[in-house]
Amino acid sequence: MRRSVKLLPFTAACCLLCAGVAPVSARDLPRIEPVQAGISAERLDLLDKAIARTAAERNIPGGVVLIARKGGVAHLSSFGLADRATQRPMRPDDIFRIYSMTKPVVSVALLTLYEEGKFQLNDPLELYIPEFSNLKVFAGVDEDGNMILEEPKRKPTIHDAFRHTLGIGAGGGPAPVAQLYTDRKIWVNAMTSLSQQMQLLGEVPLLYHPGEQWLYGYGHDVQAYLVEYFSGMPVDEYLEKRIFTPLQMVDTAYGVPAEKRGRVAALHDVPEGPPPFPPVDMRPSTYERFAEHPFGTLGLWSTAMDYARFAQMLLNRGELEGVRILGKKTVELMTANNLPPAIGNLGEAQGTPGTGYGLGVSVQLDVAADGNLSSPGAFGWSGAATTHFIVDPAEEMVAILMTQKAPYDERMLREFQTLAYQAIAE
């Protein structure tokens, strides 16, 4: 049951738009005036007021907004409360559970190993994950209710793992397959390692033939396992060495140290108890387990400024402040629509017509079809606690919203996108 909590009026403590109130621990991107970035200060004020009002109406306690353009942060503001229980106001340097915004980071990590010649995208996964050697495809049930299994038309590849065309779900699908996921506890809340997960996934059938459908599943855990396989390092250590330290993302990790706990935004409105299916337990205590058991699907904590540094690196085609994480052509491939022609876009799969999918990020293909302000080629992703990032190469813009509201509020994220784009003046 969802808890009902009365918000304070947003004209008082719950509407503290406080850009720059607290020092930001992460290394800041350069700050520039909105006019230098071609952004209207008046429209930024409209953004702040509208997002605070939207948050109040949708019962979201507070959050942080960051808008960067032309290489500098033109706007960083916080609104509302970080914690209803203590009434602590949100601060710009607060730390958030970013859930599926972990995924693009893991994809970048695997792409750094791609650039080292460790693999090709069309390599069958069974070359590196022997447990996938005998995968079958679910093809229905017979008259006795037994599963009918087929040989895959082709072997699933690393490319499939990147773009969610692998055939592996996350616990859903037809009842016989879903029951196998439940019986074997194939969910990140219970598994202890990526190697254990690969073994379990190798024992259940694929939900469709590789490359024929888009299904949001455990593909990023497969990617994280491959990071460990090719690097010889645990995925959390590899991310720290190859991404977080070079980019000076000092507040991004699979756990939060004791000295930073006072900056953690509370997760609000989590359903009472774990849902029966799909088994995504969003209770705060569950998220803590990923510090010891890192996965590629979720688990990272971050700040708006830290994630902006990651996003700006992608906007700069792989480089930030003289540090190169990926090559230009790799970023171009990552942020192109990688879906096979038979799939095309995510309209049918996710209800987002005009949107494609790259290597770990969604990609804007048709602005009018999507029905929101954007640019062709813009890319990004969201997290289950209502976090979101947008990178728009055409507008030289990064936009980030961090909140901590479960379950995920897609409408608020779309409204944030509209508000961020309407602030562009030139």
From TrEMBL:
InterPro entries on file: Beta-lactam-related, Beta-lactam/transpept-like, Diverse_Enzym_Activities
Keyword rRNA-binding: no
Broad EC category: hydrolase
UniProt KW Protease keyword: no
Keywords from the named record: Hydrolase
Origin superkingdom: Bacteria
EC number: 3.1.1.-
One Pfam family here: Beta-lactamase
Gene Ontology molecular function terms on file: hydrolase activity
Protein name: Esterase EstB
Organism: Croceibacterium atlanticum
Gene: estB_2
